[in-house]
Amino acid sequence: MFGAAEFPAIVWLKEEKLGEIANAFWRFGKDDVGWILYDLDFEKGRLPIFFRPVISDGVMAVPRAKDAALVR
Fold first, then answer.
1. Is residue 13 within 8 Å of 26, Cβ to Cβ?
2. How many CB atoms lie within 10 A of CB 48?
């Protein structure tokens, strides 16, 4: 994940490096990437909201705003 809402990142791939990048970052299986900041709840005094995603075969599932997977 690159940044948060306050710090977005603009990224792009160079065509000549595509194979190298794919080999370096695409892995099959599951990887636990630790806790990630999801949002701040300003109605509750800027309470941080976290989630703990797993990357499965190169895909990270991000929970919806009302999901029980979010930890406040």
1. no
2. 13
Look at residue 12 and tell me whether its pLDDT is greater than 80: no
Q: Which tokens go with 71?
A: 């930890």
| Strand ranges across the sheet with 54-56 | 30-32, 54-56, 59-60
pLDDT in tens, 13-31: 666 665 665 565 566 778 8
Q: If phi over 0 gives left and psi between -120 and 50 gives alpha, with beta otherwise, what is residue 45? A: left
Residue 15 DSSP SS3: helix
pLDDT digits (tens, 9 = 90+) for 37-68: 888 999 999 999 999 988 887 788 888 888 88
Q: Is 68 left (phi over 0), alpha (psi -120 to 50) or beta?
A: alpha
